[in-house]
Design brief:
By secondary structure, the chain is mainly alpha-helical. The chain is about 70% helix and about 0% strand. Bound molecules: zinc ion (ZN). Zinc ion (ZN) binds next to loops.
Length: about 120
Amino acid sequence: MTRRERTYTAAAILLTAAGLATVWHDQWWETGFFWLAAAGLYEGAARERRTRRARERAVAVRLQWLARGHAVIEPPQPCCRFWLSSDGAVHGHDCTRPPAARGSLTLAEQQALAWLDDELRDSA
Ligand SMILES: [Zn+2]
């Protein structure tokens, strides 16, 4: 669970509880406001969760390709200026990559690429 996902969920729970408290005092406008805001935050948390899962699936697919030996190492094309200047760590608002592909490599991917690099050097 990402930090933003946790934050959205915690805020949505607080607003839901605040809405319940206003029900107790018959403050229906406030109840509607709190629950509407909570619904927006629940949606934000769900969107973050979908993005995180898509990223995890993309990493798993890349690791499977590396494990099968399908590693075609091509340098990634620059997607934005932030990516170029930050050495692949940060993407800008005008980035052309899909959000699931904007993360940097995981430790397992880095290790797999380092191993593959060693193998290629040994065989050359
Ligand atoms: Zn980018």
